[in-house]
Amino acid sequence: MNVRRCLSRIGYGGLLELNIETLRALQFSFLLMVPFENLDIHLGKEIVLVSENIFEKIVTMRRGGVCYERNILFYDLLTALGFRVEILSARMVKGFSIGPEYDHMVLMVSLDHPYLLDVGNGHLLREPLQINSFENSYAEGYFYRVGLHDNTYALYYRQANREWLPRFYFTLQPRSLSEFESMNIFHQSSPNSPFTRRRIVTIATEEGRVSLIDRRLIIGTESKKQWKELESEHKYQLCLRQYFGIEIPGV
């Protein structure tokens, strides 16, 4: 891990003390600079869960990545800075459907308390959340908190005046990268994976979020959302460059 280059990629020039303030600032910078994107799946390029490959893609080539890639890079950065970090498995929840183990990857950082972090999801909390507390976080119109679910934990979310719903379930059992390999293959090859069905690129902004869902460009703030259909693949590539800083060689 080249810490200097990684910090430059995420636009971070602040303090590097091992505390919650640094952790919060690093996460926020990461989310503003590194998009979630599944373009390699639609380009026929294999996503490999190897730190060197991910560093090359996100830092050197200035791309984004899927949840595994983004959280692995952030794990490597935090570990290199001296934070105590563990990789955890999470199961995404959508309605009554619950994903399998290793469906998603999240991180736990131990400071004075254990904190849940996730820079991998395309739309989620923007700061560490203390585990085993009633602490709330707010981002993009949603409140978030960590709570118990049976013998495990859940990240819960809700909009104002709505009930709390689980976003994903997770345990505190540390995991290795090899344990995610089967689901990594599933997500980039199965027709049942949400990532094979359409191209998704999304990044947080100070005011909200910018997303490209296939050729639909969506620019949103907390108060309004605008969208338009792009007329051509050429305009799609221009939007990749303008809003996400992504250039695909040979495309």
What does this molecule look like?
The structure is a single chain. This protein has one domain: Arylamine N-acetyltransferase fold, CATH 3.30.2140. The chain is α+β, with helices and mostly antiparallel strands and 251 residues long. The strands form 2 sheets. Strands 2, 3, 4, 5, 6, 7, 8, 9 and 10 form a 9-stranded antiparallel β-sheet that branches. A 5-stranded antiparallel β-sheet has the order 1-11-12-13-14.
Q: How do you describe this structure in short?
A:
With 251 residues, the chain is of the alpha+beta class.
What attributes does this structure have?
alpha+beta, five-stranded antiparallel sheet, Arylamine N-acetyltransferase fold, single chain, nine-stranded antiparallel sheet, globular, 251 residues
Intertermini distance: 29 Å
Q: Which regions have little confidence, pLDDT < 50, spanning 5+ residues?
A: none
- Tally of helical segments: 8
Based on secondary structure, the structural category is: alpha+beta
Tell me how many strands there are. 14
Biggest sheet record: 9 strands, antiparallel
What is the CATH class?
Alpha Beta
Tally of individual domains: 1
Shape: globular
Radius of gyration: 17 Å
Helix content: 25-40%
Which architecture would the CATH scheme give at its second level? 2-Layer Sandwich
Strand content: 25-35%
- Assembly state: single chain
SSE topology string? HHEHHHEEEEEEEEEHHEEEEH
